[in-house]
């Protein structure tokens, strides 16, 4: 079988493919309850728009799931993909001790992927990630379907200031 040389389509998970609204309350506490936030990720509902985008992109692209979730959640994340009918893809996760802002971490991963083959599109909900990727020359689809106005600021603060998701 020839090696897959289709361009990459890179998709975020939280608030892009999965509905984080039932667990974002763990991040509103002081201190934030990261263990509970991540423990409940396996129970997220699917965002229908995210699944549709992933399925559509999989027809012409190799899917790469690029998430700020820590590596320790790999098993639960893979099972969630399988249980919810997501297309197969490479899963790139944040190192368990990596606290860089999501924009920094994800842009570094995009650059590494782009050395292997073209990155056709990044699909992400994080405005700072999208802005950084666009500035670096990547095509971006902003996943504005996953967060409402109440939960958005909490998750974005967690992604950017604490480098956790």
TrEMBL record:
Any one Pfam family match given in the protein's UniProt record, by short name: HAD_PNKP
Bilayer-spanning residue ranges: none
Coiled coil (residue ranges): none
Domain Polynucleotide kinase PNKP phosphatase: 10-144
Descriptive protein name: Polynucleotide kinase PNKP phosphatase domain-containing protein
Species of provenance: Kribbella qitaiheensis
